[in-house]
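Q: How do we represent a protein-ligand complex in a form that can be generated token by token?
A: Start from the inputs.
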Amino acid sequence: MSSSWKIETQAIQGGYDPKPGDPRVVTICQSTTFKYDSADYVAKLFDLEVPGFFYTRLGNPTTDAFEQRLAMMEGGVGALGTSAGQAATTLAIFNICKAGEHFVTASTLYGGTYNLFASTLPKMGIEVTFVDPEADAAEILAAFRPNTRALFAETIGNPGLNVLDFAKFSAIAQEKQVPLIIDSTFATPYLCRPFEHGANIVVHSATKYIDGLATSVGGVIVDGGNFNWDNGRYPELTEPDPSYHGLQYAKTFGPLAYIVKARVQLMRDLGAVPSPFNSFLFAQGLQTLPLRMQRHSDNALALATYLERHPAVSWVNYPGLPSHASYELARKYLPRGASGVLTFGIKGGAAAGKKFMEACNLIALVVHVGDARSCVLHPASTTHRQLSEEQQIASGVTPDLIRLSVGIEHIDDITADVEQALAASQR
Ligand code: PLP
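Then emit the structure tokens for the protein with pyridoxal-5'-phosphate bound:
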């Protein structure tokens, strides 16, 4: 296995290196635990002195193959699979932020992440400041406090579809000596590798493009191994952990400190672990990710171009379109394509939008994105409905916004379905 492989090769061959007689395919290791003969050896496993598996909450061969494959594709040093994307985000923050501390985040977020940050984490004593990612650096810097522990943003905001200015965000994170944590769910490592642009930690909802066929909920945290935890500000990584008989993560594990701590301390205690079966499906999904992401992106660009010229459409939001405010950022950070999600407004507003959704045949009304099958959604009445209108607008959702997750079917069939549904929406 080689980290110099192109991403298409890493996706197919990475993370699993079968020896003679081993199964060719990553196997589903559906076992809670692992057998050993020597108590001393098991003690060494517990003490993290030797690598190996002892209990599936802490590690599992199938999940390990998925983690290693994705870490390789992202160009990170290690990864931790989780039971959902929400768990990945929660653990990524908890790993370095406790009650009485604070972090700064872009406001253009997936609705579930917005709720987690605006409602649940503050109840646990973690304070959060939301910033407009388009604001200038001075304004974002002003949100930092002495107890600020991280800067968080999405590569492509869901569902605003603004592309992150990595140069600005990573410079701010570096100046403040905090890690830049990126949710790269919509981009996937095929379209953007955030560590190459100054990010330190990446999280994904594996539920979306990584799975790719809408079979399983899951998440993953990837560690870039490129943050200096020893800067005097992260004692949880540099000082002895009393809950792990004095383990010092940075000293013992160097660049792997963050991801090892997330596993042996937080996964141990919180248990948001993926099932081996789901990890198998994610490892399978990664194999076709480059092919799918190219097709999703090409189809979405073609459909966005078509919609932009359609008389029943008032606006189209897709970062691959030259008319989009993020177009230059998309060209810089997403050179292969701008992923499969686009939003648009129908003339006739919310009522026409409802008619459009109900008239779609091939394109299904489902609460999902990133599926190989095209799907459609009205976020204000579904995924973002727990937010106030003010919060919805802050996260990029207007009442007339329709979101399309463009699949990998033939573009002519997708366009034909949109064409007839648009006609129906205007009757
Ligand atoms: N991040 C983004 C960008 C998402 O779109 C989602 C879900 O839609 C999540 C995180 C949460 O992931 P999950 O549903 O796997 O918990």
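Residues 84-86, 110, 112-113, 154, 158, 183, 185-186, 205, 207, 217, 219 surround pyridoxal-5'-phosphate (CB under 6 Å). The chain has a mean pLDDT of 95.
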